[in-house]
Amino acid sequence: MSTSGHVPGSGPHRPEDGALLVLDDAATVLACTGAAAELLGAPAAGISGRDVGAFFAEPGDWPRLRGLAPDDRPRSLRASLRGPGGPVPVQLDLLPIDGTLPARFLLRITAAEHVDRREENEALVGALFSQTGIGLAIHDPELRLTRINPLPGDLRPGAARRDPSGGALGLRIGELLVPEDAAVVEARLRRVATTGEPLIDFVTPARLARAPGRERVISLSALRLSGAKGAVRGVAVTFTDVTEHERSRKRAALVATAASALGRSLEVSRNAQVLADLLVPAFADLAAVDLTEAVLVGDEPGAFATGAPLRRVSAVAADGGWPDELYPPGSVIRVRGYESDRLRLGSAVIVADLDELRPRIADDPDRVRLVLTDRATSYMVVPLQARGHVLGAVSVWRSGDRAPFDAQDAAVAEDIASRAALAVDNARRYTRERRTAETLQRSLLPRPLLKVTAAETAGIYVPGRTLAGTGGSWFDVITLSSSRVAFVAGHVRGHGLNAAAAMGSLRTAVRTLSDLDPPPDELLTHLDDLVVRLAEDEQPGGAEGTVRGASCLYAVYDPVSARCRMASAGHAPPVLARAAGGAAPVGLPAGPALGREGAPFEPVEVELRPGDLLAFTAGSLSAEAGDAGRVTTYLREEAVGGGARPVPDIGREMLVPFLAEPPDHDAALLLARVAVTPEEAVAAWEFPADVKIVADARAEVARRLTGWGLDDLVFTTELIVSELLTNAIRYAGGPVAVRLIRDQRLVCEVSDPSQTQPHLRRARLTDEGGRGLFLIAQLTHRWGSRYTASGKTLWTEQLLPPHLRP
């Protein structure tokens, strides 16, 4: 014992550690710690040798503490000691000492506030480890479980009832959870142990190793436990099962995702596929979408009758393989009365346990194939209804340890199904309108293949990928008088039915004007005036398919002169591929669009050779769309001239790269390989204005027809030439030109310097003349007149004898 009365080794102290007095059998203080001296407000030398009872604020407390138990038993008492500032509440613990030394007791003195805090801490820890609402676990530095509060029975890894941990103590996290979930949790806890940074509310899957198929999600918080000098003692973890909360959150997220994903496409089948992909695996393990045949083709669904066919449009499995025992994608399903009634009711039907259903429908193969699969444990079907009509149904299955479908799942599925039904119905209505617009557009276009003497043509129309890109592009081939042919290409603003109708109006106007046979620039001028009048008749803010702003290219090719004259109203020029090789766009000024500026249209004339190919483009293939270069490149690189390859084959091959992906807007392509009328098939004469030459003209015509082997047409042709030539000399003067063209028909032309057009009338019985044109109309297949730069030309066409027709 130290002579100073101070306990050796009693260095720095913490107040919560308490103070010590060493007492003999007579309760005399033999020694004390520094903390005791500080607490009692006296030096150690002043405390040693004194009776301990002198330091009690209440004289009777020491006898009471001494008498609580025999001298060989510890005892404790709350009391007050005399301190330098007054009474100090303390916790006294009297501990007996065995041996032969004078010291018989140790009196440990702890401030009451520190004792209270310690007891509160102990009570808190005890409460935490005894409750079951929040999981509490202690892991050592190696992340082995050392302590855990009692868990609900369905969460315990083991089954030992006497062990609150269920036999989990000493196990690592990887032995408690499935490997992929354990790896995530361990990584987080090691970070806490290494850095000391706490982990707060980390939500993660935590499926138990003994039930890997059962969904389980926890919210995890963790902090590092440190001992003396900062040594890591382990990690304290609190966790809460938030599986249901996560399910609700996922359900809400699934509905939100469905709201944004469904309806983006205007294809019925695409919306069905999006719906199935949304449900698997987030909501189910298998999903199938069945739609009525009427919906798939865009028709109105009508009343849903028992036995109405449904087609399985999409089917998705979480593992990628659709069960063989269920109807596969593409199959047709005819539902019975019960199923039809449930679809009409519009609410979900749940079969929570398929094992209960199996024996009841085992003898019905159709129902078995509709519902039952070996890998599924739960089933639900939800009708797809929109505007009171049944569009189809969506079926979903769950398997394994996944929770069976319940009422909450049904509410979510019905919400998603209602959104999907609207998306499908919108796509159906869009499909119907697009199909109608495309049908109308195609019906207004000419035959795709046309072969006349002047040219071999092939036209291709490609509808746009969407309704917004369908109905504006067009082309036409118009046969004119004297073996000539007109090529037309154009584009109308807008889309859908409005654009198709506007295109039809424009095409009809072009055909009507072409019957007057004006030059291309004059035809476009008349067409421009017509478009302005049509636009003025429209209401303000009229339909998008208005013809104002439309483009049009009009080209006339004469196989006799081998020249093509063309003009453009805001349209891209054609590409000319020479038979000898090489291709380039024609140098044609685009001019203003129809109904815009009213500026004159500048014509261009191009000399062609046999086998040359003209490519007219519109829509996505036009120069404005940036794809005309593809046409030029193809025609430049490929041997397309000279008639070596059929024109339709050239057109299809040209569009292969263009159609690798459907265009956003429609496109039109018109190819024309020109031919030249042989010189021996044309005969021309010029006569002065003298009626005496009519007989000579008839004789020349007869000789030429005989040389062509057209003796059957000599008489009628002489009558035609005689009548037209006589009228020209009588009313127009001279000189007068006569031309015969042997083509698919026999063409007879008489040209004079007058621009007065003749007209057909019915002569009265008393009239001496006026029957000439009436007679010509009876003798010919067609007849007409056209203006020329120097006057006019009257022309007739006669059909060749059957054995001479091509």
Describe what you observe in this structure.
The protein is 31% helix and 27% strand. The protein is α+β, with helices and mostly antiparallel strands. The strands form six sheets. Strands 13-12-11-16-15-14 form a six-stranded antiparallel β-sheet. The protein has a six-stranded antiparallel β-sheet with strand order 17-18-27-26-23-24, covered by helices on one side. It has a five-stranded antiparallel β-sheet with strand order 2-1-5-4-3. Strand 3 and strand 4 form a beta hairpin. Helix 8 runs antiparallel to helix 13 and helix 13 runs parallel beside helix 14 (496-514).
Number of domains: 5
End-to-end distance: 141 Å
Query: Which strand order does the major sheet show?
Result: 13-12-11-16-15-14
Query: How many beta-strand segments?
Result: 32
Q: CATH top level of the largest domain?
A: Alpha Beta
Which class do the helix and strand fractions yield?
A: alpha+beta
Nearest-integer average pLDDT: 83
The CATH architecture of the largest domain is: 4-Layer Sandwich
Low-pLDDT regions? 152-163, 541-545, 763-770
> In percent, how helical is the residue content?
25-40%
Which topology of the largest domain does CATH recognise?
A: Phosphatase 2c, domain 1
- With helices defined by DSSP (H or I, 4 residues minimum), what is the helix count? 20
| CATH homology superfamily name of the largest domain | PPM-type phosphatase domain
What is the percentage of strand-forming residues? Answer: 25-35%
Radius of gyration: 51 Å
Q: Report the sheet with the most strands, covering strand number, pairing sense and barrel closure.
A: 6 strands, antiparallel
Broad shape: elongated
